[in-house]
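We modelled the chain as a single entity of 148 amino acids. Its sequence is:
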Amino acid sequence: MRDPEKTDRARELRKRSTDAERCLWRHLRDRQLAGRKFRRQHPIGEYYADFVCLEDSLVVEADGGQHAMNVTRDEERTRSFEQQGFRVLRFWNHDILQQTEGVLQKILLSLPPTPPSPRCAGGGSPEATPSPRFAGGGSPEGTPSALT
């Protein structure tokens, strides 16, 4: 059963999202990335994940400047998520805004491959198509890296 307090808190966090969170959400929502369902400001234990793909146990965190001063708190959050079976990727807000494709590529590469769904058997695929500059399989120079 849902906890009404956590639901209200998650709604409030979504209303106050940062520019970087809104930018990333535009690309993660509606199964746009590899057909995966992401949720935003989703409660996991005592913390709220900025973004989470429950089917792949992946948390994506957007870190602003305040996170540089709260390294211990971020480490606690990461540990808590990991103890509950989640992998955690962290990106700086600046990188999300300035290198969005690189951030999306890193998220995509962290997702396990999935078999094509029956609805895509006619040649279409829910997989996100990387831009041509990622076609070589490597990551472009200057691509942001996950902090944890």
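As a brief sanity check on the tokenised model: Residues 4-134 form a domain with the Endonuclease; Chain A fold (CATH 3.40.960.10). The two ends are 32 Å apart (CA to CA).
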